[in-house]
């Protein structure tokens, strides 16, 4: 009786929400009743189900929105937010949603560049995995089970606390959720030495479209292959990942060289294009171009897996144009270098456990570069950053080579391996309330001007830097497969067809879908 009364009150609140809802409210009512009965405990129901009538709903929704472009009054809101506290809650949500035709989005850290983990224009429910973030480290076997709702900062912190000479090759932003990061590939300062985060995933627990909990052995190798770089949300809800740890030296060196002179910066960048992917795998040097106090600044932040004396010897021999000096460098532990690269200052390492950071609205695009660009092209980028609408613009060049060239492009869905010198990320930010169009047009203009100098046939893109300008499903005159292929080959190249076959096998009715998800292809033979 107590559960029945609780369910009745939730139903009244749900049916009175002011947000646009499905034309068939009985489906939503059926979904909610199905979910409440399966959970079968009013205390659990109150912890898992959150409606727009809850006083905290708006702040709860906004707390994991990392791109303020999708935190406006006219941004579509979910009918419900579900916050599972155990795997059974996710199973129940999937089974009930499938039964009643409810559309779901799965959110881990909320860093999807186009907000697809928490925004869509059809009535939807968010499964927010923030409560599923346990981290279990097995030092003897050098492995970790990490739940999808954890951030990579929380993961780094726990590893660093256990053993200072073990690490993991993931991204530089600590608030990113491991769920989306791992399932799209995931790279950071260790990619030249150790590759992607997805390259070190050795098992996973998922809830599939039938509501079953599967691990690698039960899901099979094709399914397991697909979620390690193909975007897990196209296939399932990933509950947790088992990852293998890597060795890091007890002492690493971080450094940064900054130039405000265009010619000085161009000289370094020109040479950087020829050496950054070919020097020792222990050395990672990024290029960052952005405005600083109304001036364009070129920064060259880097990480060396060893002491400063060895770094200086290496750079003076291979890349003297950088002009690196001992004063530019600082020795520290690997976990401290994570804090440094995240630009968190001198904070102790427990700052990595913070799940949110101040964020702005932004638009981003990506490219892969296979031949060094002429200096005149870099100069044009420099001048673009001097434009008024690029006040908060940023260009990031990330070097590849090393391990990235040693792993075949078919071993995971992430195909941008051998032959790529570096990746470019084009970003522009703006403050809340400003007109977004001019800032987004700046990114589009720079991206269009670069078409001649980046990878082509196809022009590549990185799924973790999702870009809806590449296309999205509209359902007009083309099959979903034909639509999806137009941008799918940019993200996945030749791996797109295999991803479609896996999708057709494991989720033939396309339950897990979004504006750029992997489509089914009904004529493909089931794997």
Structural summary, described in words:
The protein is α+β, with helices and mostly antiparallel strands and 527 residues long. The chain folds into 4 domains: 127 residues, Uridine Diphospho-n-acetylenolpyruvylglucosamine Reductase, domain 2 (2-Layer Sandwich), CATH 3.30.43.10; 113 residues, 2-Layer Sandwich (Uridine Diphospho-n-acetylenolpyruvylglucosamine Reductase, domain 3), CATH 3.30.465.10; 187 residues, Vanillyl-alcohol Oxidase, Chain A, domain 3, CATH 3.40.462; 57 residues, no CATH class. The protein is built from 18 helices and 19 strands. Strand 8 and strand 9 form a beta hairpin.
Describe the structure using short key phrases.
disordered N terminus; five-stranded antiparallel β-sheet; Uridine Diphospho-n-acetylenolpyruvylglucosamine Reductase, domain 3; single chain; alpha+beta; eight-stranded antiparallel β-sheet; 19 strands; 527 residues; disordered C terminus; Uridine Diphospho-n-acetylenolpyruvylglucosamine Reductase, domain 2; Vanillyl-alcohol Oxidase, Chain A, domain 3; 4 domains
**What portion of residues is helical?**
25-40%
- Largest pleated sheet: 8 strands, antiparallel
Mean pLDDT across every amino acid position: 93
CATH topology of the largest domain: Vanillyl-alcohol Oxidase, Chain A, domain 3
| DSSP summary, beta strand count | 19
- Give the domain tally: 4
Our Rg estimate from Cα atoms comes to 23 Å
Please write the CATH class name of the largest domain.
Alpha Beta
Taken as a percent bin, the fraction of beta residues is 15-25%
Anisotropy-based shape: globular
Low-pLDDT residue intervals, each spanning 5 or more residues: 1-23, 523-527
What structural class do you assign from the helix and strand content? alpha+beta
What is the end-to-end distance?
Answer: 47 Å
